[in-house]
Design a protein that fits this description.
By secondary structure, the chain is mainly beta. It is 9% helix and 45% strand. It is built from 2 helices and 8 strands; from the N terminus they run βαβββββββα. The chain has helices at residues 10-17, 138-142; strands at residues 2-9, 26-32, 36-50, 56-60, 70-74, 93-95, 99-107, 114-125. The strands form 2 sheets. The protein has a 4-stranded antiparallel β-sheet. The longest helix is centred in the N-terminal third of the chain and has 8 residues, at 10-17.
């Protein structure tokens, strides 16, 4: 297993979108390769948000369970260092074709215009390792 992370800046995400963020917007956070198990994932507020009301974030895989990892993180009331509560509903998730772990803006009266969230995931490559029999190397046969 290994951990990966990506910081999402809401102001930069709005700039990349070309307009204000809104409920139902999806921000792709972490690319997951084929044949990879997502053992766990979560979010941490790294910069206190501002400029919004009612911003609620989910974390999951949009093609599957959009809130598999986090369901209902009240981002507007979070402070730097606060972690979202893990959903513990559908993990681990085996990704058989490349996909992404996504932040879904589940609800908002007005989405925060500033603030950052760190998205992290614990992944494990479960692709085949190939032939592992003892006849691959002479020293293995001697054991």
């Amino acid at each position: 297993p290994y951990i990966v992370e990506q910081e999402i800046d809401l102001a930069a995400a709005a700039t990349a979108k070309g307009s204000a963020l809104a409920a139902a917007d999806i921000i792709q956070a972490i690319t997951v390769g084929a044949n990879t198990m997502v053992m766990a994932a979560g979010m941490e507020c790294t910069t206190t948000p501002s400029g919004g009301t009612g911003t609620v974030l989910d974390l999951g895989i949009t093609g599957g369970d959009v809130d598999a990892f986090v369901d209902g993180f009240a981002f507007d009331s979070a402070s730097a260092g606060d972690y979202a509560t893990l959903a513990n509903t559908a993990t681990p998730i085996l990704v058989t074709t490349s996909d992404t772990v996504d932040v879904l803006i589940q609800a908002a009266t007005t989405v925060s215009t500033a603030g950052k969230v760190r998205v992290w995931a614990v992944l494990m490559d479960v692709d085949g390792l190939g032939e592992m029999s003892a006849d691959e190397v002479a020293r293995d046969a001697l054991a």
